Amino acid sequence: MKILLFFPFLSALVLVSAVPARHPPARPPRLLLEEMVITLNRIEKRPTDVGHTLIADVIDVHNCKREDFCRVEKVLSNMVKEFKEKGIIVRQLKEYNKDFKVNCPVVENKEIELKKLLHHLRICAQKKYAQ
């Protein structure tokens, strides 16, 4: 008798465990921008972490476009020097750019300090967040 009562429970357990796992829903771009701004604010409070490393100037702070975020992701991903939040920023940019299917070539005509590039990225993220 106890076996008959236990069988439906066991069957339900097997069925539930056989259901494929779902991927978490994609986070909205606005939330990603907010997280990016928070991370960049944290970096700006510790300027010694970033230092005076020169990097390609790939973002136009006056005319922030989606391609700029893509270019910054590429430049930071290929950067040799590490800083504390580099991985976090690159992941946030990668997720933000995930659905953006455009070729964004990096032209390295001009260089700026890394801390200034990150400051420009924060300004652009704030502008996009406000739209």
From TrEMBL:
InterPro entries listed in its UniProt record: 4_helix_cytokine-like_core, IL-4
One of the GO biological process terms: immune response
A family per Pfam: IL4
Signal listed as a keyword: yes
Gene3D superfamilies, per the entry: 1.20.1250.10
GO MF term set: growth factor activity; interleukin-4 receptor binding
Cellular compartments per GO CC: extracellular region
Record keywords, A-Z: Signal
Residues making up the signal peptide according to the UniProt record: 1-18
The name this protein goes by in its record: Uncharacterized protein
Organismal lineage: Eukaryota, Metazoa, Chordata, Craniata, Vertebrata
